[in-house]
Design brief:
It comes from Natrinema soli. With about 400 residues, the chain is an all-alpha fold. It is about 75% helix and about 0% strand. The protein has two domains: about 150 residues, no CATH class; about 190 residues, no CATH class.
Length: about 400
């Protein structure tokens, strides 16, 4: 067993300063915790909008560019997002109330099924599971209801998000440079971590969230044309389900097609099934077009990261959770390699493990993305074959 390395000189010579620095960082963390999800939301928005900031800085000063981006984000993203969530909550509550009050005429649905040759006793089935159905829907929307109910806290949180967004857009590069100067990590490892985390963020935000949003909008348009009720709620539910591997939009368009058939519209149900398949299989084209033919996460990290992130960070955990898990694996890989001075065990060059970037860039646009995306993170020109981000 190799001997443990001696502690750095700065720990031995300045123990009091080291303890004070750790306590200061811990106290700062306690200050951030109450609004951590809003701070992280601001970080994600800054990561996405940084290319816009850099483009505007070519024409106006950085401060005015940041103010312009923040105002546009408030008007184009945040206010419409709050409105859509409020509509989805109202529709889900209306659906729960209809189920509990028996407004859904199950006997009519059963009669339609019998005329089409399907003898199903839906009345007993519905009555025996009425409470479970309503409870399940209510649990899905309980988090959003609590968020809408706490309007003052949400207003303060969104204010924090906007200020974090403004600060990162204007001074993000200096903040990242300060972190790299403060952290007691070699520059080579810092470059590798920066490259790996940049790829993780890009794959999470674009590969998961953007694809889920596109598919949700596509399916929502189809549901609206078909006349399915509670379209906004079903669209939001599609977005959440599409983030999960092996689930996707199946969980929405299959019940919607069955509903249309039960309502005596078999043609509309068949069209909905075909359109739903097209929406589901569009993932095979959207994801490679946006991030290349590879993935930075495996299914376990995505599922655990999403559900664990929702509990730990709130709604922003949908895309922060997988990044946290993938970043932890990436950091531990770098730590193990620095400690043992050996290649990482089980590493597969160009594989699809955590932190693996695209093996075949999807054109010049993706190459520019890898170097420009991220809050002040500049990818090294040559990360090397032993980069921790490729492990």
């Amino acid at each position: 067993m190799p001997d443990s390395p001696d502690p750095p000189d700065w720990i031995v010579e300045q123990p009091g300063l080291t303890v004070f620095a750790l306590l200061s960082g811990l106290l700062a963390l306690f200050v951030l915790l109450p609004y951590l999800q809003y701070v992280l939301f601001g970080v994600v928005l800054a990561y996405i909008l940084l290319p816009v900031q850099r483009r505007l800085e070519q024409y106006i000063r950085p401060t005015f560019a940041a103010i312009t981006v923040v105002i546009a984000t408030l008007l184009i993203v945040l206010i419409p997002l709050v409105y859509v969530i409020s509509v989805a909550v109202r529709q889900s509550l209306r659906l729960v109330r209809s189920i509990r009050q028996g407004e859904i005429n199950v006997e009519t649905v059963e009669g339609v099924l019998e005329t089409n040759g399907y003898a199903v006793d839906l009345v007993d089935l519905y009555e025996s599971n009425q409470g479970r159905i309503a409870t399940a829907i209510q649990e899905v929307t309980s988090g959003a209801i609590n968020l809408v109910g706490s309007l003052p806290s949400m207003f303060i949180g969104l204010t924090v998000t906007l200020f974090v967004l403004f600060a990162l857009l204007r001074d993000g590069e200096r903040l990242v440079a300060w972190f790299q100067w403060v952290l007691p990590i070699d520059d080579e490892i810092l470059d590798e971590l920066s490259t790996g985390l940049d790829r993780l963020m890009w794959a999470s935000v674009v590969g998961n969230v953007a694809v889920a949003a596109i598919q949700a909008v596509m399916l929502g348009v189809g549901l609206a044309i078909a006349g399915v009720p509670a379209v906004v709620f079903l669209t939001v539910a599609t977005f959440v389900l599409t983030l999960l591997p092996l689930v996707g939009a199946f969980g929405i368009w299959i019940p919607a097609a069955a509903y249309l058939v039960a309502m005596g519209r078999p043609t509309a149900g068949a069209v909905m099934a075909i359109y739903g398949l097209l929406v589901t299989f569009s993932d095979s084209y959207l994801r490679p077009a946006l991030i290349g033919r590879t993935s930075a996460f495996n299914s376990a990290i995505v599922v655990v990261g999403i559900f664990g992130g929702l509990i730990a960070f709130g709604a922003v955990g949908l895309f922060i959770g997988p990044v946290v898990l993938g970043g932890a694996k990436l950091t531990l890989d770098c730590f193990a390699r620095a400690r043992t001075d050996q290649p990482i065990a089980g590493a597969v060059t160009g594989g699809e493990g955590v932190g693996a970037g695209p093996t075949e860039p999807a054109g010049e646009q993706e190459s520019a993305t890898e170097s420009d995306e991220g809050v002040g993170v500049e990818s090294p020109t040559d990360p090397g074959d032993d980069s921790c981000s490729d492990s």
